Every structure is written in C-alpha cells, then in structure tokens.
Amino acid sequence: MFSFELLLDAVVIGVLLGCFYAAVSLGLSVSFGLLDVPHVAHPAFLVLASYAVFFLNEHYGVDPLLAGLLITPIFFLFGLAAYRLYYETFEKRGSDAGVRGIAFFFGIAFIIEVLIILQFGVDQRSVTATYVGKAWRIGDMRIPFRLVVAFGVAAALTILLTLYLSRTYMGRAIRAVAQDQEALRLMGANPIRIKQWAFGIATAVLGIAGALLIIVAPVEPTLDRTYIGRTFCVVVMAGLGSMSGTLVAAIILGVAETIVLTLFGASWAPAISFAMLLGVLAVRPQGLFGRLS
User: Fold this and answer.
1) Which carries the bigger pLDDT value, residue 254 or residue 179?
2) Does 93 fall in a domain?
3) Could you tell me whether strands 141-144 and 135-138 are parallel, antiparallel, or unpaired per DSSP bridges?
4) Angle at 190 between CA 189 and CA 196, to 5 degrees
5) Number of domains into which the chain is organized
6) Which stretches are transmembrane (predicted)?
7) 3-state secondary structure 238-276
C-alpha cells in the first residue's frame, strides 16, 4: 500500500537521483543547448569516461572522483578534436549540417561502444571506494552515500558552469555565439574557435559525470542507450542552455521516475523521460525556463 512514508522516500531519493541526472546532462546543455550541435553521442562519451575511471580505479587504485578529475583534460582535448572534425566535415558545408551531424555523432557513438566491448567485454563494471555501497539511515529511510556524492558534485558543477558563462570573457562569448554569430565576428572574435572551446568544456565535464555514473551503479557498454532519452529530456525541458534550469528539470525527472517506480514498478520508470520530453515539446517547446539569453 502506498503511504506518506513511501512518498517521502521517493521524493528524497528522486531529488538526489535528479541531481545525478543534472550532472550527466550539463555537458549536453552546452553542446546542444547553446551550440546547436546535434550531439547524440553525448551518452556514449559519458560511458567512455566511466570506463576510463574504472580502468584507473581497477589497475591503480585511484579514487573514482579523482580519476574523473584526471581524465577531464583528456576529454577536453577529445572535445576540441571532435568539434573540429564535425565542423570541417558538416557544419562548414551549410544548412544540412544538422541532419548529417546526427548521423556523424551516431557513428561516433557506435564506434565508442564497439571499442569498449573489444577492450572490456560486455560484462558490467563497477568501482570501489569508501562511499560506494554505504548508506545513511534516517529513521526507516536509507539514503545511499553514492547519491549524496552525486548531489554535491552536480550542485558544484552547476554553480561553476553558471559562473563561468556569466562572469568570464570566454563564457560571455559562448553565450553570444549562441545568440548572434555575426555580431560576434564584428567584434573581432572567431565564432568557430569559441564554439570549439565550448564543445571542449562540454566534453570535459563528462570526465566528472562519467565518474558519478559508475559510482551510482555498474556500467556496461550499451548503457548510453538508456541515458540518451534522459539527458535530452532534461536539456529540452530546462530550456536550451540554462544551467540552473538543467538542475531543476533533472530533479523533476528524478522525482517523477522514483514515484512511478514506487507506484508501478521498475519497468515503467525508463518511459518517463520520453513521455515528459514529448509533453514539454507539445506544451512548452521553449522549455520551462526558456533559452539562455
């Protein structure tokens, strides 16, 4: 029987889970929300980061969060290269870049998935750390440490990205390139280099997000297919490019999923993201907070 205590548990866990969803969606909020890059390979990059964290943890005993920090510069460079290839191959050629770009990033996602399988196999992988597998108990409520870690990291990433986009020269340039590239050119800036830098940041964030992914639950090579709906749902529901909106929208999704899970079982929970995405597109296509301006 569904009770107030179960509802409270679902809401608390949903808020923590939602913060985790925010952490894995922030990079997409930049690449898709601000740059209009159809980055459907975002979840594949995320899973790749998780396996990199697993490798450092398994072979060198590096803490997962520290491993996420260590791979962040590598993923930044990976993002710079990926955007440059996308730009030279598709975006530079004109208006059909969006459709062809989707195929391009789907191809990258497939290649990443195959490479992970070849290197690590198809079995699930997990990490070890002092905060993995433990939980706080508040009365009858059990709160996993791993979700508390995700909550803290997601809040920190949201604050840092918001400050970066609003307080730094490059951050303001990224916001400007999302609004008017021609005006930015007249000011002497190179929109392509700014977009490349922004895509590098969006990919670098996945180093930390990938660490959180494997901390929260074991990963396997095809996990990106599960998160593609969730991440795009969060970004579209938030309003393209809104960092704080991404956090709020992710919490809404997390709470909705846990309530549905509690009421109807696990089989219904994955469908929530697609249902909410379709609902937002039908009722408020600009998102809950509108596009970043």
Assistant:
1) 254
2) yes
3) antiparallel
4) 130
5) 1
6) 7-28, 40-57, 64-86, 98-122, 143-165, 197-219, 231-253, 259-283
7) HCCCCHHHHHHHHHHHHHHHHHHHHHHCCCCCCHHHHHH
Reading the block at residue 107, the tokens are: 């191809």
| Residue range(s) defining the domain that contains residue 171 | 4-122+130-283
Residue 32, C-beta contacts closer than 8 angstroms, at least 6 positions apart: 38, 39, 42, 232, 235, 240
| Residues 21, 179: Cα–Cα separation, whole Å | 26
Packed helices 42-60 and 191-216: angle between N→C axes, nearest 10 degrees: 50
CA 188 to centroid of chain Cα atoms: 32
Angle subtended by helix axes 191-216 and 169-179, to nearest 10: 100
Each residue's pLDDT tens digit, 20-59: 999 999 999 999 988 889 899 999 999 999 999 999 999 9
Task: Compute the average pLDDT of residues 266-287.
Answer: 79
Cβ–Cβ under 8 Å, residues 238 and 248 = yes
Q: Is residue 288 part of a domain?
A: no
Exposed, middle or buried, 16 (CB in 10 Å: 0-12/13-18/19+)? Answer: buried
CA angle, residues 80, 81, 84, in degrees to nearest 5: 85
Residue 84 lies in a domain: yes
Residue 269: is its pLDDT beyond 90? no
- For residues 26 and 240, the answer to whether their CB atoms sit within 8 Å is no
Chain centroid, CA 127 distance in Å: 20
The domain that contains 191 carries what CATH number?
A: 1.10.3470
Is the sign of the CA dihedral 19, 21, 27, 29 positive or negative? negative
Task: Please state which of the ranges 121-125, 127-131, 280-284 shows the lowest mean pLDDT.
Answer: 280-284
Structure tokens at 236: 């579209």
Six-digit token pair at 58? 């398994």
* Each residue's pLDDT tens digit, 50-62: 999 999 999 999 9
In a domain, 289, yes or no: no
Burial label for 187, CB within 10 Å (0-12, 13-18, 19+), is exposed
